[in-house]
């Protein structure tokens, strides 16, 4: 079997000292500080359990909340669209762009638009589309994809960015972060002022008031949702709470989880006031609510919890696997532990099997999650489906061979005589494998995965149970 | 978009949730519709804060603003604030053009600073939204805001715990004044400082004036200057929005009076 994308990309990243240093700095800086931030809350870290309850309650009443949100937005003159899949969501946006004769669109960071492939569709339709979050902008200029939800360009060094800006923005080479930021500030300022359309995601909408919310530190989302003529927001259908008061907890937890901040730089509540859009803002506000596989997750009570996710990226900042392999191996808008569950559920469990198989089940992601989502439980469940197959999720058994091996193993260990015979023959047979002393350093076939990076101890000639028996009989000290 | 698209979309969700015919609760059942005792106590506590308590909140806010590179300063009169703004305008260089300009909200507290007169000797024009210019008083100001060195706003509330400002969008208070200029200066009164997000949300949800007004079409919380850490996780101020955020708190040297805050953040 040829090596998968995940495995080869992971192997590549592990060999990249620059990336690993960047990831380790990110994790040291944000991951641990977020944990301290939860501890410092008046409610203590249990605040995460309350957040989980609020999210779960919202998910379980999603129909009522979405109807209310749509009603409240339309009542004030906004437009609400419902998109079953990526294609429908993209088409709706293209339709709005055509209706308003849009030539230039500026975007705030939105993982959902990455998921549905919006940029490519807009560019194909002849609409210049500019990412404005600095990290996303860097990634877009380099023609790459984000490798972290909150820090999209964490895989790039300042020297690489310096060369990129020299080539693309026509400025003298510099590797000074403030100077590079200033260059992007100037270049993007023009785009903000010229853009016809601003595109944003949605953090957590409030059904009660009919507002979406956006969160940023740079102010780019405020620019993109204030200056152009048209504002189009994309919202995963689960990104909603019922009540304004629910936000109190989330806007304490989200900045902590994302960047160990007490408060995000800018939080905006955006809606509409009349047919001319917002006062001193865009003339039209459209919200596109996207399913794209989420209703299937909702329908499975065992995975429903994943819809509580607020995409803060805290689990990336804590995960030992992400910390070694970085975001690109996940080949999805959603890397890290969140991606290891969400991507298989959205894109197909077999197709993304490596993602959930690659995580370590250490549980750090659950402990750092501001919403206390039990990611390890769902990773294990995905593995079970891969091992046994699953009709509802259309999962084929990943390896018949593995299944047969375990069936044989199961017979062996339940039959002492057979097991004894097996061990005896194995203790002789193992000598044909290369090794040194009591260690084997190369096993064939599937077992080669184990010895690829470490040795395995040989089976001893005499089983423990026999030695114990001997000892009890007084024959051995 | 068609109704049938929405109906199919909702149908899938209802199926996923296994809603029966009478299954879905009404929205009112899902939210708190009347304030409870805790809410009322908190509102009462906020409204009955005395000057000493307000000054304690101010101290916390100044402390919270320090690590965010915010400059928060208490001043005793409008004239002092105007003079401080003048000093800043003189010291800083324009970023988006050669001419130093100021844009400001048409807000009673901002108007009382009399910035036009204060800046005149410096040759720095101050632009306000033009009320008389017909349908789009904001258009004209936006052009100025794109070039401006300083944007002067007020705010509805400030939060002591996080040094945040909360502001709604109203006629004469365009959001881009706090966004486009190189420096954002907010002028508030001492009594507008709340303790934390919990107090803010309680007031937004239950205070009669705020409840009636709603959140407006754009409500923004601002904490610190615009910043980014996207290049090697190094913090840099001044990403896209203002590179400096300065808050002047008007602390009148008079005897204490209880808070009396109306929805537009002005004294009643």
Describe the structure.
The complex is a heterodimer of chains A (477) and B (268). Chain A is α/β, with parallel strands linked by helices and 477 residues long. Chain A is built from 22 helices and 13 strands. Chain A has helices spanning 5-14, 17-39, 47-59, 62-75, 86-99, 111-116, 118-124, 134-141, 158-168, 177-194, 220-226, 246-259, 294-299, 320-325, 336-347, 353-358, 364-368, 375-388, 400-413, 416-429, 448-451, 464-472; strands at residues 79-83, 104-107, 128-131, 197-200, 205-206, 212-216, 230-236, 240-241, 266-270, 284-290, 435-436, 439-440, 456-457. Chain A has a six-stranded parallel β-sheet with strand order 1-10-7-4-2-3, sandwiched between helices. In chain A, strands 11-12-13 form a three-stranded antiparallel β-sheet, with no helix packed on it. In chain A, strand 11 (435-436) and strand 12 (439-440) form a beta hairpin. Chain A is elongated. The model of chain A has no long low-confidence stretch (mean pLDDT 94). Chain B is α/β, with parallel strands linked by helices. Chain B contains ten helices and twelve strands. Chain B has helices spanning 3-16, 27-30, 37-47, 51-65, 78-91, 108-111, 115-119, 137-147, 197-206, 208-213, and strands at residues 71-75, 102-104, 126-127, 150-153, 157-159, 164-167, 183-189, 193-194, 218-223, 227-228, 236-237, 244-250. In chain B, strands 1-12-7-4-2-3 form a six-stranded parallel β-sheet, sandwiched between helices. A four-stranded mixed β-sheet of chain B has the order 8-5-6-9. In chain B, a hairpin with a 4-residue loop joins strand 5 (157-159) and strand 6 (164-167). In chain B, helix 3 (37-47) packs across helix 9. Chain B is globular, with a radius of gyration of 22 Å. Chains A and B meet through helix 2, helix 4, strand 1, helix 8 and helix 10 of A and helix 1, helix 8, helix 9, strand 9 and strand 10 of B. Strand 9 of chain A pairs antiparallel with strand 9 of chain B.
């Amino acid at each position: 079997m040829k090596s998968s994308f995940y495995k080869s990309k992971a192997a590549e990243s592990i060999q990249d000292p620059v990336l690993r240093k960047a990831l380790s700095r990110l994790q040291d800086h944000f991951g641990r500080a977020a944990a301290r931030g939860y501890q410092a809350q008046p409610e203590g870290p249990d605040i995460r359990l309350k957040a989980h309850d609020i999210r779960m309650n919202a998910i379980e009443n999603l129909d009522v909340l979405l109807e209310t949100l749509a009603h409240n937005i339309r009542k004030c003159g906004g437009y609400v669209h419902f998109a079953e899949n990526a294609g429908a969501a993209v088409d709706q946006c293209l339709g709005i762009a055509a209706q308003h004769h849009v030539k230039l669109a500026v975007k705030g960071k939105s993982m959902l638009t990455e998921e549905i492939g919006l940029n490519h569709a807009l560019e194909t339709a002849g609409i210049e589309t500019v990412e404005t979050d600095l990290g996303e902008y860097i990634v877009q200029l380099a023609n790459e994809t984000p490798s972290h939800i909150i820090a999209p360009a964490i895989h790039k060094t300042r020297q690489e960015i310096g060369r990129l800006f020299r080539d693309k923005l026509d400025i003298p080479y510099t590797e000074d972060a403030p100077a590079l930021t200033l260059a992007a500030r100037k270049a993007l300022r023009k785009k903000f002022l010229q853009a016809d359309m601003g595109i944003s995601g949605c953090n957590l909408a409030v059904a009660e008031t009919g507002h979406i919310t956006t969160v940023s530190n740079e102010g780019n989302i405020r620019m993109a949702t204030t200056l152009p003529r048209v504002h189009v927001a994309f919202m995963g259908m689960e990104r909603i709470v019922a009540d304004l008061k629910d936000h109190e907890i989330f806007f304490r937890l989200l900045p902590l989880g994302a960047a160990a901040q007490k408060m995000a730089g800018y939080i905006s509540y955006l809606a509409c006031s009349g047919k001319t859009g917002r006062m001193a803002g865009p003339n039209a506000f459209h919200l596109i609510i996207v399913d794209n596989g989420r209703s299937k997750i909702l329908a499975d009570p065992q995975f429903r919890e994943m819809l509580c996710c607020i995409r803060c990226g805290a689990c990336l900042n804590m995960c030992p696997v992400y910390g070694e392999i970085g975001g690109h191996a996940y080949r999805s808008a959603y890397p890290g532990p969140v991606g290891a569950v969400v991507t298989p559920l959205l894109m197909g469990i077999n197709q993304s099997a490596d993602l959930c198989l690659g995580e370590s089940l250490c549980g750090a992601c659950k402990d750092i999650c501001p919403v206390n989502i039990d990611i390890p439980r769902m990773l294990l469940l995905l593995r079970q489906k891969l091992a046994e197959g699953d009709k509802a999720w259309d999962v084929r058994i990943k390896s018949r061979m593995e299944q047969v091996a375990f069936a044989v193993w199961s017979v062996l260990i339940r039959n002492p005589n057979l097991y004894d015979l097996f061990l005896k023959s194995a203790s002789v047979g193992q000598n044909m494998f290369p090794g040194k002393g009591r260690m084997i350093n190369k096993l064939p076939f599937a077992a080669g995965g184990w010895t690829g990076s470490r040795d395995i101890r040989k089976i001893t000639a005499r089983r423990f149970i026999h030695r114990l028996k001997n000892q009890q009989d007084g024959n051995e000290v | 978009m068609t109704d049938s698209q929405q109906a199919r979309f909702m149908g899938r969700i209802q199926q996923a949730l296994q809603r029966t015919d009478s299954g879905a609760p009404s929205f009112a059942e899902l939210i708190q519709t009347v304030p409870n005792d805790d809410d009322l106590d908190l509102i009462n506590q906020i409204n009955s804060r005395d000057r000493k308590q307000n000054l304690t909140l101010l101290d916390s806010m100044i402390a919270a603003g320090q690590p965010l590179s915010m400059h928060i300063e208490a001043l005793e009169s409008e004239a002092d604030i105007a003079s401080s703004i003048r000093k800043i305008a003189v010291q800083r260089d324009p970023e988006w053009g050669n001419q130093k300009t100021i844009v400001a909200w048409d807000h009673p507290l901002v108007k009382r600073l009399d910035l036009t007169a204060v800046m005149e000797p410096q040759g720095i024009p101050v632009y306000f939204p033009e009320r008389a210019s017909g349908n789009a008083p904001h258009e004209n100001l936006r052009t100025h805001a794109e070039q401006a060195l300083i944007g002067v706003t007020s705010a509805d509330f400030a939060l002591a715990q996080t040094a945040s400002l909360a502001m709604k969008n109203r006629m004469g208070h365009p959001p881009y004044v706090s966004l486009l200029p190189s420096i954002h200066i907010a002028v508030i009164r001492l009594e507008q400082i709340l303790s934390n997000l919990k107090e803010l949300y309680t007031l937004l949800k239950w205070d009669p004036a705020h409840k009636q007004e709603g959140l407006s079409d754009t409500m923004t919380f601002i904490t610190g200057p615009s910043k980014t850490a996207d290049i090697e996780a190094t913090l840099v101020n001044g990403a896209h929005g203002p590179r400096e955020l300065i808050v002047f708190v008007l602390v009148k040297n008079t005897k204490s009076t209880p808070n009396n805050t109306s929805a537009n953040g002005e004294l009643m």
